Amino acid sequence: MNLMRGTVCQVRELRAARARWKADMERFKAGQKAARGSGKVPEDPGPPPTGFALLPWLLMGMGAFSNLFQGEAANPWIGGLGLLTFNSLYIYVTFRAFVKETRQARSTKVALVLMGLVTCGLALGYGGSWLYFFPLLGLATGAVMRGPWLGRTGLALTALAAAVSTYRAGWDALNVAYGTFLSTMVTAAILSLAEAVRELRAAREELARRAVEKERLRFSRDLHDLLGHTLSVIVVKSEAARRLAGRDLDAALVQIGDIESVGRQALTEIREAVTGYREGSLTTELDQARSALSAAGVDPVVRQAGPPLAPQTAALLGWVVREAVTNVVRHSGATHCEITVYGEAERVRLTVTDDGTGTVPTCAPGEGVGGTGLKGLTERLAAAGGSLTAGPGPRDGFVVTAELPTDPTHLPEPPEPTAETAEGTKTAEGTKTAEGTKTAEGTAQETALETAHETAPETDTAETPERTRTGTAESRQPA
User: Fold this and answer.
1) Which end of the chain is more exposed for a tag (fewer CB within 10 A), N or C?
2) Would you say residue 466 has pLDDT above 50?
3) How far apart are CA 112 and CA 154, in angstroms?
4) Are 378 and 324 contacting, i.e. CB atoms less than 8 angstroms apart?
5) Residue 151 contacts by C-beta under 8 Å, 6 or more apart in sequence?
6) pLDDT of 261-307, one tens digit each?
7) Given its phi and psi angles, is residue 127 left (phi above 0), alpha (psi -120 to 50 degrees) or beta?
């Protein structure tokens, strides 16, 4: 009764293992198909090996089964019982060998020892094709005995197979010992390597997950430190302004001014904290620009040519693309926008051209991504040895042109300011020349500045002269 119950339990375990294996294979095949469809290299190595990988080797015992079936073996009942016992122990050991906990269990090693005794008994009693149970014993031993005891166990098993084979079939049967040694060592090496690869992959995924969690905690902690006190101050001052609004308007305005100052400071700190997360590649920005323009009803044309760009150069040009496209979508009223990136050996040029009204308020405070605007981008490009110009195009519309060195490690030194530069800057600002006249470029710049001034908040009026000095190509030369 106990034997039947154990057999039924073993059959159930085999069925459950086969169901798990089939489910893992289905998921693996689906992942492979999806990866091939997207053109990517699949990273999933597939389900881990199970005892089913070693079951086909039982066909090596077909010779012994043939002897029993044809009546060529003496005492067929003993031989049949030994064959059934060997196969049962082989299946039991191999399926437990692929799980680390069960592989190291004492019951598995006891079953392996019993399997060795049965193998020796069958080989000594029958010889011939029954000797091929030694390589099967080597497979099971290699699957179980991984580690420092593998070499000693493999050599001992090989010596045992050689002795028994020589005793039953003479020196011609030494190939059985050679096959036993190979089956033991190769099986252990392959399974150990596969397990090591999977453990390394799991360790890498765990490290990546922990790194993400650590960065998430750090970022949340920084935001808490930045916003906790600031929001508390804003709430307190807002309550004070609400209480003072009815009886002391001047005091309430003071509180509102403090709220504005605290909010601006918090906004600046948050931008500094997330700067590292917002740096993107030029390719990503071009894709997002194409999507944004299409969504706004503007026909986008993107052209890119030249050698690969350094990450710093690509990041700066990405900021220019984002700012220029934002202005096109918000203010230009254009129906067509062309973005061109042309790189040479030493310089790269980015041009954003639209067919809008040509009166984009590019210098208005708070208009750029991150609040930089074209003014801030001009300063950043100048610090990197480049330049940024923006203004009406030759045939209406608006044109933004940025130039940067291809290799930011060899930045040119900023030129010293000259009299011609100063005179050109004054001319660009629309001031009167020595002859008492204004240039056409200065008049156009004043018109653009008046438009920007009308759309800008009153609190940023003090920054207008600084924006005026950064309006055109001449004024953007580094001082």
Assistant:
1) N
2) no
3) 13
4) no
5) none
6) 888 888 887 877 776 555 556 887 888 888 888 878 888 899 888 88
7) left
Q: Which residue has the higher pLDDT, 35 or 175?
A: 175
Partnered with residue 340 across adjacent β-strands are 303, 351
Mean pLDDT of 196-207: 88
Q: Flag whether pLDDT at 311 surpasses 50.
A: yes
- 138 with 184: CB under 8 angstroms? yes
- DSSP codes joined into one string, 259-314: HHHHHHHHHHHHHHHTHHHH---HHHHHHHHHHHHHHTT-EEEEEEESSPPPHHHH
401 pLDDT band, cuts 50/70/90, is very high
CA atoms within 13 A on the CB side of 78: 9
**Alpha carbon separation from 111 to 57, 58, 153, 180 (Å, rounded):** 18, 17, 15, 18
| Dist CA 256 CA 275 (whole Å) | 29
Q: Six-digit token pair at 241?
A: 């302004």
Token pair 């086969």: residue: 18
Q: Which two tokens stand for residue 130?
A: 């029954």
pLDDT tens-place string over residues 408-432: 654 444 344 333 333 333 333 333 3
Q: State both tokens at 309.
A: 């760009």
Query: Of 56, 49, 51, 132, which Cα lies nearest the Cα of 93?
Result: 51
Strands (E), 83-197: none
In the structure encoding, which two tokens stand for residue 369, read together? 């991504």
d(CA 175, CA 198): 34
User: What does the DSSP 8-state code read for residue 394?
Assistant: B
